[in-house]
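Q: Fold this one first, please.
A: Sequence and structure below.
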Amino acid sequence: MLASIPNLRRYARALLGRAGEADDLVQETLTRAWHRLPTYRRDGDILPWLFTIMHNLHIDQIRQPKLMTLPMEEEATGIAERPRQHDNLELRDLDAALERLPEDYRQVLLLVGLEDMPYAQVAEILGCPIGTVMSRLSRARAKLRALLADDAPSLLKVVT
């Protein structure tokens, strides 16, 4: 289970976009998995089982009313890096475009594209047929391309 934490964190951060909420989701996923470990069928990789738990928790969180919270500033790392202003703008554009995708599309796109999962595993995690995964992925990619296209209005403009 410990080896799965980086994958869970990466998916949660990409899904939610906020580090604190993503870490909370990962922690809740691991807590629920630990309590339900006796129900796990040890016939394969534990990662799809953990992603299924995370998916279900995320759906539950979406359905619950949210409390208004103020984000805390993350601590600065203090590590010097080369300037990457354009890289950051491109990442912000991508992040903003991902946020504009419907939830179903974003989930499939992140599991296949970010986590490099096969369609069958994604279908199992999301509880839908493999054909649905393929069509959602195709539509998600097309919509993401349209959002990021040069002819579409820029999500963040570079001022020169």
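Q: Good. Now the second chain.
A: Here it is, same layout.
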Amino acid sequence: MSTTRPGTKMHINWRKWDGGPHWVHEVVYLGRDEWGAWFGQRVGWRSHRPGRDTLLKTSCVMLLPDAPQGSDHGSEWILTVNAPPQRTRIYIDVAWEVRWDAEEPSGIDMDLDVVRRIDQRGTFVDDEDEWEEHRVEYGYPLHVVNRLEAVTADLKRRVESRTPPFNEETTRPWFDVLDALEM
């Protein structure tokens, strides 16, 4: 990561707890701030997983936060902020072992998502049913379950109150960086 320059195209690579493939997002590295590393996706860029392949209809920026102090398991989430007119403005993948691996970010998607929409649904935790199913199927360790349930509740509170980095004042400049890149 330390040698990665803004404007470098790469991927964010997700897998499931059992090592199976999950989402791969085509992104560009935008830079860093006090919150962590920022990435962007432009209209027409690809996100795919087994059984699903999409091209973005709106741009977005993503934040890979720095791992919590003293963490031996990497970061615990990745934030995606979608540009208008997308109704889902914030989508946070709760995760495990998110870190730079072989010059690209990778992590384990842990099912739970914190979502903020601009419609009547507002802010909510998504995929709790998948979480319950997979914690049994994959045998998530109890310390991981307890930690990520606490992280999810904290993220939901922070998104609802729009505290940084979950506010437009923090994310808008990264859309400007994405728009300014010549690619």
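Q: Anything worth noting on the second one?
A: The beta strands are 9-15, 21-33, 36-41, 46-49, 52-55, 60-65, 75-82, 88-101, 104-117, 123-126.
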